[in-house]
TrEMBL record:
Molecular function GO terms recorded: ATP binding; ATP hydrolysis activity
Domain ABC transporter: 5-254
NADP among keywords: no
GO CC, alphabetical: plasma membrane
Keyword list, A-Z: ATP-binding, Nucleotide-binding, Transport
Location in or out of the cell: Cell inner membrane
The protein, known as: Peptide ABC transporter ATP-binding protein
Family matches, as PANTHER family: D,D-DIPEPTIDE TRANSPORT ATP-BINDING PROTEIN DDPF-RELATED, TRANSPORT ATP-BINDING PROTEIN
PROSITE patterns in the cross-refs: ABC_TRANSPORTER_1, ABC_TRANSPORTER_2
Family per record: Belongs to the ABC transporter superfamily.
Record's bilayer topology term: Peripheral membrane protein
């Protein structure tokens, strides 16, 4: 099966703020990222803020052009943003982000907003559109009474359901979700995650699920890619990542997630500054915070190697172990 979306060695660089006496700097928000997501699959992209996850999501949708590398959508090159071909591709991919209030128009009813993409892309007859609104509202767990309300008359969870309904109305094949439940209460988060899972089972939509919250990711991801300062440092099936993380950064992230029925083991507390794309350390960008860094880590960037378990990992020490075992 060919992937729905595929990124090959994608980078995204933008000009930072120069100062009066400072030259313009270039920030590498995403660097040499390759990934793919298949139909019915959820790839979670995790990492702290500043790791480049959101920028990667924008690049996958064509909203931010890649400075190097290429993105393929359903076996075709992603066309430049704004082009007719891109608009056709874009109709099949949807973005959901953190703040449903910002995504919704305060003046329109929920039904009108869910219907909007169908009107824009002229999908179906007016009756079919009305039917689709009812259907997709039900799919996301909205009640018929919600449809005539305006965003401020709904709870945060209901608003995010409305945003999801609008995204799913046109039956996209790809959803990029950027922190879609981060603004919701924890009790509501689980319900909305279940809604995503149900929608995926029903429709086969491929999902890129961007989050800093591993507790959330645990309940939805099939595979997890861990980003640090623009690079993927580890990627593996979700159960493998949680049971046996190998990259020191992943180990630290996973060690902070409580697992029901299991005592918190040796928790790795990350020292040092959180990632700042404008001040990227040399060598392995994680080295100033890495509890097991060696001299080589300061000078040489570890490559992302594949090993068994369908895992990719970028760490000199893990590569050594791998080399020794081979
Ligand atoms: Fe730590 Fe070095 Fe591995 Fe980077 S390459 S994660 S600094 S051990
Ligand atoms: Mg972000």
């Amino acid at each position: 099966m060919s992937p729905i979306i595929e990124a090959n060695n994608v980078s995204r660089t933008y000009a930072g703020h120069g100062g009066l006496f400072r030259p313009k700097s270039y920030v590498r928000a995403v660097e040499d990222v390759s990934l793919s997501v298949e139909q019915g699959e959820t790839l979670a992209v995790i990492g702290e803020s500043g790791s480049g996850k959101s920028t990667l999501g924008q690049v996958l949708l064509g909203l931010a052009p890649a400075s190097a590398g290429d993105v393929r959508f359903r076996d075709a090159a992603l066309s430049p943003a704004g082009s007719r071909q891109w608009r056709e591709q874009r109709a099949e991919m949807q973005l959901i982000y953190q703040d449903p209030l910002a995504a919704l128009d305060p003046r329109l009813t929920i039904a009108e907003q869910i219907r909007e993409p169908l009107d824009i892309h002229q999908i179906g007859t007016p009756e079919e559109r009305a039917q689709r609104v009812d259907e997709v509202a039900r799919d996301v767990g909205l009640q018929p009474v919600h449809l005539s309300r305006r965003p401020h008359e709904l709870s945060g969870g209901q608003r995010q359901r409305a945003v999801i309904a609008r995204a799913m109305a046109s039956k996209p094949v790809l959803l990029v979700c950027d922190e879609p439940v981060s603004a919701l209460d924890v009790s509501i988060q689980a319900q909305v995650i279940n809604t995503f899972r149900r929608l995926q089972r029903m429709s086969g939509v491929a999902m890129v699920f961007i989050s800093h919250d591993l507790k959330v990711v645990r309940n939805i991801a099939h595979r997890v890619a861990v980003m640090y300062l623009g690079r993927i440092v580890e990627e593996a099936p979700a159960d493998v990542i949680f049971a046996n993380p190998q990259h020191p950064y992943t180990k630290a992230l996973v060690s902070s997630v409580p697992i029901p029925g299991k005592p918190l083991g040796d928790r790795v507390i990350l020292q040092g500054e959180p990632p700042n794309p404008a001040a990227r350390p040399s060598g392995c960008a994680f080295h100033p915070r890495c509890p097991v860094a060696v001299a080589q880590c300061r000078t040489s960037v570890p490559e992302l190697h594949s090993n068994a378990e369908h895992r990719r990992v970028a760490c000199h020490l893990v590569a050594e172990v791998r080399g020794a075992a081979a």
